[in-house]
Amino acid sequence: MNHFLKKLAFLSLLVASIAPVSSMAQTNMLFILDGSNSMWGQIDGTAKIDTAKDVLASLLTGLPEGTRAGLMVYGHRDKNSCDDIELVSAIGTDSAASLSNKIRGLTPTGKTPIAAALNASASAFANLQDANNHVILISDGLETCNGDPCAAAAALAKANIQPRVHVIGFDVGKEEQAQLECIPKAGNGRYFNASNANELKAAVAEVKQVAEQSLPEPEPEKRIVELFRDDFDGTELKEHWEVINPDPEAFIVENGELLMVGGSQTPTLNTGQSANVFKLTNEVPKGNWTLSASFNIDFQTEKEAIFLGLYNTEKDYLVVQPMAVHCGNWGNRLCFGIEAIKMSNGEITRFDKWLIREQGFESFVFDEAVMTVMQPIEMRIIKEGRKYRPGILWQSLNPETNATEEKWVELENFTILRQKGKPAMGIYQKSVTNGESAASIDWIKIEGEE
């Protein structure tokens, strides 16, 4: 017994020294008290309900300023009802003295609907999201209304109020303790056992200490800033670009754009001979980032590959590019989509997604259909850890409102364990064809965490 008295004295001093700090989230504590008939059982000549009343009343008067408490009771009014659950005091509405008086007026009567009480407790925290919320159940017995207290605790902990669910088992046997212990395990809380008055005092003081502990400061939101941008102003390509396989006759910087032309003599990227691959020489930012660019593309050969991505060598790159091809039974429909290609040690992984499937009519030729693709076309690659997610900003006309609507359409993630490539862009044709492909780049940028 001396051990518990010492523990109680220590915890009392500790609790008395607790005070909320200004940066701490609001602490809300809802006590659920067992008011079932079994609480008339006695310990050392005193009814358990009377001990619980005294301990709770004492605790409430010692709550630090700013901590808000509430009380829910079950089994205290109807002998046979599993719905006998009452929010006796809403969180933060009663003073400690008023709440203590309400506690002292309780009379144990009926059943033990623990699961239903836990389910009902969620409504007590309405509009108390983003706070330090705790449910403290004090009970001496098993669920007697066929509920599942453990499942109820798990659901409560996952609710948007995210409370921690603690339990004090008061004078319980092994079977009761086994059931009660699963509640805080499922509810992200702690279990405290008490077999007599002093142990109950110590347990209540300790659970109060746990609830009053300062929550860790939320990490400040990382601000996303522009780390690099090129708007292609002036008449010369800036020094931060390396041009691989340069063909000066096939690109020019003017009027705030980088204009590029690719023909059937522009081999694909994996040959290592693609002309005018524009590769950034700047160091790639550490951490997570987004690479994006805005293009205007003249689709006329179906072989255009205007790409944005990361390029190291012809055997090591990741690019995203739009697709516009003839389709349909008569070859006079438009299919438009996005594809992304990862080349790693000569092995290709490819994802794609069609955004337009066979648009057009028999009299609506491909050249006219492709004009319905709204430009400029914005593409991006988002890096999160070792995952790289390509996407395209898809713009479409809402026929009902005649307004332009846009949304990002993304492909599956690629995984790159050791990134060696640097941001790059360019144009090539996927195979030999008649004609040439032309495109302009309005801007390219990299955004990341400050």
Automatic annotation (TrEMBL):
SUPFAM superfamilies linked: vWA-like
Pfam families: VWA
Signal peptide coordinates: 1-25
Residues annotated as domain VWFA: 28-207
Keywords: Signal
The keyword Signal is assigned to this record: yes
Keyword Signal: yes
Source domain of life: Bacteria
Name of the protein: Mg-chelatase, subunit ChlD
Organism per entry: Solemya velum gill symbiont
Lineage: Bacteria, Pseudomonadati, Pseudomonadota, Gammaproteobacteria, sulfur-oxidizing symbionts
Gene: chlD
